[in-house]
Amino acid sequence: MTTNPSAAGRAAARRSLEALALGDAFGERWFPLFREPRRAANEIRDRRTPAEPRWHWTDDTALALALNRSLDEHGHVDQDHLALCYALAFDADRARGYGHGMHLLLPRLLDDPAAWRTLAPELFDGGSLGNGAAMRVAPLGARFHADLDLVAAQAVLSAEVTHAHPDGIAGAVAVAVAAALSARGGLDLGAVADRTPEGPVRDGVRRAAATPFTTRPWQAADLLGNGQRIRADDTVPFALWTAARHPDDLEAALWATAEGLGDVDTTCAITGGVVGAATGTAGAPEGWLRRCEPLG
Ligand SMILES: [Mg+2]
């Protein structure tokens, strides 16, 4: 299988990855662990940059790096290799905020990566429908942006290793397609919905497409979900709505996403990865870039 991306595809993937990490690290600052919700809401409203000198990224970035590394080596999604890369990323630092399902699954893939075929569908009685396959996939969409069919197919393969439920997979397809369209300079939520498999994620993206950009972001989060349930269908629509609201402005997009609170590292990682496929981090505030943990 030959799916080596163009130089433009590799550059777009790198832009997306850097912005995904920045969004993840920025979003993490608003978690109750660091700020109680009222203080977080006030500081976000006032656009006050978190003062902590170092913003660490979380599992979203760790797994996005693993996926990117596997694609660099193989040129396409090799599911057994990818399962090993996910497991190695988890093993390297288990304190990156992984969800319960990944704590169960990823250690078992370390010794037997091919076991994802039986273990992933057993998670949560039918496979995970969480937002974990969506949160790491934007750089894949950017990488293959020249071919939207390829983007959707590769996103499915990247998701299945950990998220066997159709909703978890659909979340990955929606985000990857959005990142590809962003890299092409034409992010359109209706077009994302058209290429997302049928189900609650696609329904949510359609609702996002119908939500006017004059809506306040916190109100849009009320309508579309903010990731509080950690499910793909309550995470992806709002994160893509803010991306489409600010397709050329990473900083504005991330502030808007933060207004939704909820699973805010992941919503910001998704928004960052999608907008960043077009913008990279070049326009982000210098104080954000200085604080963000380097990708290494
Ligand atoms: Mg996270």
TrEMBL record:
InterPro entries associated with the record: ADP-ribosylglycohydrolase, Ribosyl_crysJ1, Ribosyl_crysJ1_sf
UniProt keyword terms in alphabetical order: Magnesium, Metal-binding
Keyword flag Metal-binding: yes
Binding site for Mg(2+): 58-60, 263, 265-266
Organism domain of life: Bacteria
Cofactor (UniProt): Mg(2+)
Free-text remark on how the cofactor is bound: Binds 2 magnesium ions per subunit.
Statement: the UniProt record of this protein carries the keyword Nucleotide-binding: no
One Gene Ontology molecular-function label: metal ion binding
Database matches in PANTHER family: ADP-RIBOSYLGLYCOHYDROLASE, ADP-RIBOSYLGLYCOHYDROLASE-RELATED
Protein name (Swiss-Prot/TrEMBL): ADP-ribosylglycohydrolase
Biological classification of the source: Bacteria, Bacillati, Actinomycetota, Actinomycetes, Kitasatosporales
